[in-house]
Every structure is written in C-alpha cells, then in structure tokens.
C-alpha cells in the first residue's frame, strides 16, 4: 500500500478530477461492500470511468484504497468539526463530537467493520503508516477539543479517549448503551486527575 511517486504531479487538472472521481467511487464501494468487495470491476461499475482508466490512474489497487480511506477520514473529521462548532461551550463541543462519532458507527455498523478490516489489511501488508494517519487525524481532533477544557496532557488523553471510543464501537454491537450512559465513562477518562 504505497503511493506511485510523482504520478499525480504529472496529471492535468482534468486528469486529477478523474482520479478524484475514481477515489470517490472507491469510497462508495468500500462503504457498501467492504475491503474484499473493493475491486476494480466494482469501482468501475459505480463510477464514471472504465476499468482501463482506473488502472491508468491507479496501477496498484492498494494505493487507491489508501486514498479512499484517507478521503473518508478527512470527511469524517470535517463533519465532526462542523458538529462541534455549533456549540459555544468547550465541553459541549467535545461531547457533541463524541456523540456524533459513536452515532456514525451505530447507524452504519459496516463503517466500523471497514475501519478494522482496513487496519488489519494494512498491518498484514506491513503498512502501518496508513493506520497511523487515520489515528493521528482523529487524535488531533480530540486533542483540539480537549485543550480548552484544561485537562492534563490533552494529547495523551485524546489517545486514551480514541482507544475507549474504538472499544465502545465494538461493545455497542454486542450491547447497545445510550450515549448518556457512556458519557460518565468518558468524563472519568478525560477529567480524572492521575498523579
């Protein structure tokens, strides 16, 4: 799962647009069919371009999947930022984003499976950078939301909070709990004084 160096640097604006159309089609396929269903044929069936065009722009399907997952995370974090920005108080911003985070996976359980499936595949391919980019993106958002709340070491708390959220996603599939019940756990994790 590595990028083809210099490929996009030589593309015209029209070609870059076509490449983005392919990435968007891959996002659609990933969301509906998962990693195993994300084939060049499936992407061509959903998107406006042929299999040949997809192979032209992405010689390696793993590069395309990396780009599609990165686009998914970019959109997801942007949506969480918009949701949190609707609130005035910093703790309201944090909890609105967290509730939306969990609601996304509750409403679309395949999204959670896709994340974990992708991480396993990237780990097996010894491509941890792709996983790190995703985790860093979410961690940075959580650290930004925690910083105005005067918590000790917002970045460390953000990493712990993300671990909690990922576990909560799995637990919600087994035994659903309302966000109000999870909020107490989150408050303890974020605001407890250690040391």
Automatic annotation (TrEMBL):
Q: A Pfam family matched by this chain, by name?
A: TetR_N
Q: Which parts of the chain span the membrane according to its record?
A: none
Source species of the chain: Amycolatopsis decaplanina DSM 44594
This protein's name: TetR family transcriptional regulator
Q: Name one GO molecular function term.
A: DNA-binding transcription factor activity
| Keyword line | DNA-binding
All copies of domain HTH tetR-type, residue ranges: 16-76
Tell me the domain of life.
Answer: Bacteria
Record-linked InterPro entries: Homeodomain-like_sf, HTH-type_TetR-like_transc_reg, HTH_TetR, Tet_transcr_reg_TetR-rel_C_sf
In its keyword annotation, does this UniProt entry include Cell division?
no
- Residues annotated as DNA-binding are 39-58
